[in-house]
Backbone:
């Protein structure tokens, strides 16, 4: 029973103290999983994080799933995920329920107006973070070109963002495969040796 | 039917969102507001405001609430399952093979390639919020509140929930 209780406490704590969405909760999860409860080592945590970052979807629940699974199998994963997300979902339903109930009150209307620019700013900040990531990964000129392409297709031509994402993912896969192949042809032996040693 | 729609839209949004919860916000907006018309943009912005004022992962707060609103407890569970399960199962299964593709240039380039799209989606959303703020409360309040957000959140790293509560109070007093 103790491991389940520990998982529940550890992930509930990170769930209700981490602000700014999953990515900003990662250091808190690391503290619980590596330092406090020693469920995983620092190296393993780094590897899970690297893997979680290459997969789509929310980050924090992926971390919870893996750590919970490692400690206590499938049930451990369920316990870890649920303790991480359920408290704040109740908070959402309760707070928004109140807000919707009084939605016709001028005060609530004013509150919504007051918070709108703040959310705009928060989104702009998130957008900027993705811009920085892309600039680091792709270089400034490519980042700008692809951003403009995305803007035109999604905003002006009304293409579903999912289609554009799929196109970008497939192109990246094809380009990377070609590069890999080209590199292999030119220095095949070196890569083979590297693969064997790793 | 609604359960199927909930499942499908949250599955799509989360499978396409590279970069954690924040990347998923505009994709959820696209499904819930533009495609299925479950809510208006202003309702979505309320939801986002409360979600940002509360701790915890943002994707599950959105999924849990929209699912609950559209289909009760079962809708909530369906939306959450679509949000969490695919990537959670993938991370558990794939971890055994992590060394095979962790450093794979294919995966790295794929992750990078999505950044411009997510950037544009979030930037457009930010613009929509600023524009709606401008329409409803005028340029003065918009600039004041956006500038104060920059000072508190960006410069002095004030806790986001305090900033949101502050703006709610300001709006309740001066904009009602």
Residues:
């Amino acid at each position: 029973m103790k491991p389940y209780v520990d998982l529940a406490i550890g992930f509930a704590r990170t769930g209700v103290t981490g602000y700014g969405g999953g990515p900003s909760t990662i250091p808190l999860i690391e503290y619980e999983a590596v330092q406090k409860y020693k469920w995983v080592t620092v190296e393993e945590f780094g590897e899970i994080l690297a893997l979680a970052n290459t997969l789509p979807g929310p980050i924090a629940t992926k971390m919870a799933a893996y750590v919970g699974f490692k400690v206590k199998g499938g049930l451990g994963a369920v316990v870890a995920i649920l303790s991480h997300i359920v408290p704040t979902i109740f908070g959402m339903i309760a707070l928004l329920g109140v807000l919707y109930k009084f939605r016709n009150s001028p005060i609530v209307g004013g509150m919504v107006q007051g918070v709108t620019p703040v959310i705009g700013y928060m989104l702009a900040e998130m957008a900027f973070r993705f811009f920085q990531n892309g600039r680091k990964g792709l270089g400034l000129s490519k980042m700008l070109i692809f951003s403009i392409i995305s803007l035109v297709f999604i905003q002006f031509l009304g293409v579903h963002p999912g289609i554009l994402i799929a196109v970008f993912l497939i192109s990246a896969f094809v380009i990377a495969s070609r590069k890999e192949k080209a590199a292999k042809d030119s220095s095949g032996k070196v890569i083979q040796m590297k693969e064997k040693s790793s | 039917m609604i359960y199927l729609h909930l499942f499908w839209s949250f599955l799509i949004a989360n499978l396409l969102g590279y970069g954690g919860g924040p990347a998923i916000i505009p994709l959820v907006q696209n499904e819930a507001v533009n495609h299925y018309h479950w809510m208006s943009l202003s309702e979505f912005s309320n939801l986002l405001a409360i979600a940002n004022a509360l701790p915890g992962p943002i994707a599950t707060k959105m999924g849990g609430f929209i699912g609950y609103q559209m289909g009760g407890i079962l809708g909530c569970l369906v939306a959450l399952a679509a949000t969490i399960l695919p990537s959670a199962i993938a991370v558990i299964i794939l971890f055994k093979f992590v060394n095979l593709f962790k450093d794979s240039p294919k995966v790295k380039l794929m992750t990078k390639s999505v950044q411009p799209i997510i950037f544009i989606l979030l930037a457009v959303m930010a613009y929509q919020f600023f524009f709606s703020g401008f329409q409803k409360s005028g340029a003065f309040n918009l600039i004041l509140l956006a500038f104060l957000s920059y000072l508190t959140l960006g410069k002095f790293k004030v806790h986001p929930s305090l900033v949101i509560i502050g703006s709610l109070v300001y709006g309740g007093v001066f904009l009602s």
